[in-house]
Design goal:
Radius of gyration: 31 Å
Number of strands: 52
Shape: elongated
CATH superfamily of one domain: Carboxypeptidase-like, regulatory domain
Family: Belongs to the TonB-dependent receptor family.
Helix content: 10-25%
CATH topology of one domain: Immunoglobulin-like
Keywords: Cell outer membrane, Membrane, Receptor, Signal, Transmembrane, Transmembrane beta strand, Transport
Main location: membrane
Membrane topology: Multi-pass membrane protein
Oligomer: single chain
Structural class: mainly beta
Subcellular location: Cell outer membrane
Distance between the termini: 55 Å
CATH architecture of one domain: Sandwich
Number of helices: 13
Length: 917
């Protein structure tokens, strides 16, 4: 025993100080005004590497090998920084922090891939922090983004919000990049961001940064219209159990086509738990479930003319499905005349012009299931090998039912998406690998499915003068012979032909819908089977230790798209299609003129295996501090976008603009080669159908699609005035080349029979992406003002305007934005005794504007809207809880963000929050 004790003493005295002298500093940090715990506050040793954060109860513990006395640096945005001298390890420190204005203190990373003050960013960037989310009147952070300067959104449904900047606004924007914890959040097959489907849960958002405009030089292809970078909470920093329960009600006084829609509940439940097990290991788990009766798209405007369902036999409503099937009934009238020449006085006047009639469509309400639900879960493990090296494993899974708008409405039923990451990172470098897999589930494609339902219960024409159209013609002649007016005769004819038509929601209707939507497109149904995957590996190194005279950051990226749709979206009948991308980038930055002028430039090389030529893009910027906290910025960015995988492979669903019973995927370079049978522009086909003059038919000239690019210039000025006011103003101008837009074309698959356009033969409509020949320009300007009014009152206002000129009128270009936006916000983060009360209000105003849906679904004017959201909250400090009462669109005046999308009413809600404030 004595020998063991002696050996222990010898080891103690001869071991390094860093091993034998481990002191423990512990204490708690509170808000000096409210006396509540201050969580996630940084506690670091001055002139040292050791550090930690306060937990959800304000407590902290910090081990150190340094000798006493030592100084702690205490800091957090929203508090005045503080230094504390530690004299004894046995002392339990009680630290009180003074609240401070957050204006001008925000830092961002995404603008230059390095930490910098938001004010000094070289490009326009908007930010949402976790504290902003806590005080927001909106139901979720995706709704909050609508109020940011320069941001446009399209809301397809509860749970599917598409975000863009600089005016290019559409559902599923393939030119906007969404990055979550370093991972591209796009759907592997469709190439557009998945919105909130597998993004961060409400409780796990640390911050969100939105870059306006071109960002390809930093984040690669598809960054033409902006990039959103989302960062989750670090479990070492944000610990404890947090719960958020929101119960609400929507559809108050709601109507659909004049019929009342019953009020229904809104549920949103979120849970987060994080634990720092020790100084090396921490983990977190997140779950969120949202359920509600969705808003229903009910635009009944006639796409075929000025009439309505009662006055126009060829009526095809924007949100009526199945009525895209139409035909000229003149051949049936001629057959009736041949069978009975005595009908000449009735029929011959009708034959003077074409008489197009559409099948009866089904409205969305009662057709698509509007029970929206989203579930997502996330888990993350972090291990610190040493203070500078950390390993991360994470997995995120999302599933649910939501509706998305494109060339028709898509009900995404039981879709599943998973994203999994492994990362190793240090102060100056990281290596990251992740994969994304998707399962499209039992998606219902509204338009084609309804057309096939119509054909299933009664074919349009069976080839022997039987079917819906011959019956319609018979009913029309009978009614006219009885003395009915043309309008009444057409209504009587439709009633006759519709006999036996299954009603929405009936057992027969549901059977037909489920059967058709459950049969793959390749087998004659409308089900697409997207099982695509994305694999990505990347690395970045910051040469700060090796190169002192300037900042140098370099990185590489490898990506593989494994496209697997079983020949329903892509020409992948035999095996998945692999598309690879390779890229490398470097960024150089330097401060000169006593650090007043910051210069930076970056270059990126990208290669996509679907295209022969690589793309090289660049960015250059300068930021000059003309006075303290006053910055002028200028940037030039060259950005590009490879066409999406679907655009590149030119696959599209059969438009079925006749009464075709088809529905297979028609591929430009697949079964029906357009090189052999070039299509005609849909506009000229419609003229031919009206006039019968074949000379008006115009061929569509199609060339292989190429990447598009933009050269963008921006000049801006940002200033912090008296620590109470932030002012930011900017203007930009962009020049686009090989601009990608869409056109609707038509042909008869496998033939060149133009007669099919006007008689009972089948023809198909395609939506083709192509490059416009001329140069397109976009320009705009914006300004924002934030004022700290004192006593925790804060007000914000922003104004922005985006414009497009020199557009190709033959293209649908997805530039859907009003001439200007105005957003206002006013709130107080704490008033009353111990500042337990708070409130926030926001107003978003947009004038009416033209909105065109790609794919030919709809075109029209979105009415002006003024949307007010508001909430008031009360803290239960001892219970570490809070209660919020609020409403979105509090006036309940329904509005829409795009043609063919739903009208959005109010949601009135109450929220209970635990361990969040």
């Amino acid at each position: 025993m004595n020998k063991i004790m002696l050996l222990s003493l010898m080891l103690y005295f001869f071991m390094p100080d860093s091993v034998r002298a481990q002191g423990l500093i512990k204490g708690s940090i509170n808000n000096n005004v409210t006396k509540e715990a201050a969580y996630a506050v940084s506690v670091r040793i001055k002139n040292g590497t050791e550090g930690t954060y306060s937990d959800d109860r304000g407590r902290f513990q910090l081990k150190t090998s340094k000798k006493l006395p030592l100084t702690l640096l205490i800091s957090s945005i929203g508090y005045e920084p503080k230094e504390i001298t530690v004299q004894s390890f046995s002392e339990n420190l009680e630290i009180n922090l003074e609240p401070a204005s957050m204006l001008g203190q925000e830092v961002v990373v995404s603008a230059s891939r390095t930490v910098q003050k938001k004010l000094a960013s070289p490009v326009t960037i908007e930010q949402i922090s976790s504290k902003d989310i806590v005080n927001s009147p909106q139901l979720n952070y995706m709704d909050m983004i609508q109020g940011l300067k320069g941001v446009d959104v399209t809301v397809s449904s509860i749970g599917f919000t598409s975000i863009s900047t600089r005016g290019f606004n559409t559902s599923g924007n393939t030119n906007f990049t969404q990055i979550v914890d370093g991972m591209d959040n796009q759907a592997p097959g469709l190439n557009f961001p998945l919105g909130s489907a597998i993004s961060l849960t409400q409780l796990d958002v640390d911050n969100i940064e939105v870059l306006s405009g071109a960002s390809s030089a930093l984040y690669g292809s598809r960054g033409l219209n902006g990039t959103m970078v989302m960062t989750g909470k670090n479990p070492f920093k944000y610990q404890g159990l947090s719960v958020l329960v929101t119960q609400g009600v929507n559809h108050l006084n709601g109507k659909n086509n004049g019929d009342p829609v019953p009020a229904s509940p809104y549920y949103d439940w979120a849970l987060r738990y994080a634990k720092k097990v020790n100084e090396k290991f921490a983990f977190k788990v997140n779950m969120q479930y949202t359920q509600a009766k969705d808003w229903v798209a009910n635009n009944m405007d006639n796409k075929n003319g000025p009439g309505n369902a009662l006055t126009d036999p060829n009526y095809d409503g924007v949100n009526m499905y199945g009525s895209a099937t139409n035909t000229n009934i003149n051949p049936f009238l001629e057959a009736a005349l041949a069978g009975n020449p005595d009908l000449a006085p009735l029929i011959e006047p009708l034959l003077a012009k074409p008489n197009y009639v559409a099948r009866t469509g089904y409205p969305e309400y009662g057709y698509l299931d509007n029970k929206a639900k989203l579930f997502k879960a996330n888990a993350e493990l972090r291990y610190k090998f040493n203070p500078k090296l950390e390993g991360i494993l994470s997995g995120t899974y999302g599933t649910g039912n939501i509706v998305y708008t494109n060339d028709t409405r898509y009900q995404l039923k039981n879709f599943k998406v998973g994203q999994y990451r492994a990362e190793l990172k240090s102060d100056n470098w990281f290596v990251r690998a992740y994969t994304t897999s998707e399962n499209s589930g039992n998606t219902v494609i509204a338009g084609p499915t309804a057309q096939l339902i119509n054909e299933a219960w009664k074919v349009s024409y069976d080839g022997a003068m039987g079917g819906w159209y011959p019956q319609y013609t018979e009913g029309l002649i009978t009614a006219l012979a009885g003395g009915a007016s043309m309008i009444d005769a057409n209504l009587a004819a439709r009633a006759l032909a519709d006999q036996g038509r299954p009603l929405q929601g009936s057992a027969r209707f549901n059977h037909l819908k489920d059967s058709i939507s459950g049969t793959p497109i390749s087998e004659g149904g409308t089900l697409f089977l997207d099982r695509s995957k994305l694999y990505n590996a990347e690395a970045q190194y910051n040469f700060a230790e090796e190169i002192k005279f300037m900042s140098v950051i370099a990185g590489v990226n490898w990506r593989l798209y494994s496209l697997n749709s079983k020949n329903t979206l892509f020409p992948d009948k035999n095996k998945p299609i692999n598309v690879k991308e390779y890229s490398a980038y470097v960024q150089l930055a330097k401060k000169v003129m006593d650090d007043k002028l910051s210069l930076s430039t970056s270059f990126r090389y990208d290669k996509n295996t679907l295209f022969s030529d690589p793309k090289i893009t660049s960015r250059a910027s300068m930021v000059y501090e003309v006075a303290k906290e006053n910055f002028i910025r200028f940037s030039y960015q060259n950005a590009y976008s490879f066409p999406s995988n679907i655009q590149a492979l030119q696959s599209t669903l059969n438009g079925m603009n006749s009464y075709s019973s088809g529905g297979s995927a028609l591929l430009l370079n697949g079964t029906y080669e357009f090189d052999k049978y070039p299509p005609y522009t849909l506009e000229s086909v419609n003229k031919y159908r009206e006039t019968g003059d074949a000379t008006v038919l115009e061929r569509f000239k199609y060339n292989d699609i190429k990447p598009q690019s933009v050269n963008a210039f921006e000049l801006g000025y940002a200033a912090l005035i008296g620590k109470r006011v932030i002012f930011d103003v900017l203007g930009y101008f962009s020049t686009w080349k090989n601009f990608i837009g869409y056109a609707n074309v038509a042909n008869t698959p496998g033939t060149d029979d133009v007669n099919a356009f006007k008689d009972q033969s089948t023809y198909s409509v395609y939506n083709i992406a192509f490059n416009g020949g001329q140069t397109v320009n976009t320009y705009g300007y914006a300004a924002s003002l934030s004022v700290d009014l004192g006593y925790n009152f804060l007000t914000k206002v922003n104004y922005f305007s985006d414009h497009l000129k020199n557009k190709n009128n033959s293209q649908v270009n997805n530039f859907n934005t009003p001439s200007y936006h105005v957003n206002l916000e006013f709130g107080n983060s704490g008033f009353g005794k111990k500042q337990v009360w708070s409130f926030n209000t926001s107003l978003r105003y947009k004038p009416g504007y033209l909105y065109v849906v790609s794919g030919g679904l709809a075109k029209g004017t979105v009415p002006s809207s003024a949307v007010i959201d508001a909430q008031i909250s009360y803290k239960l400090i001892k219970a570490r809880s809070g209660i919020r009462l609020g409403a979105t669109n509090i006036t309940n005046k329904y509005y829409s963000t795009g043609i063919a999308n739903p009208n959005i009413g109010a949601v009135y809600y109450v929220t209970y929050a635990y361990n969040i404030f």
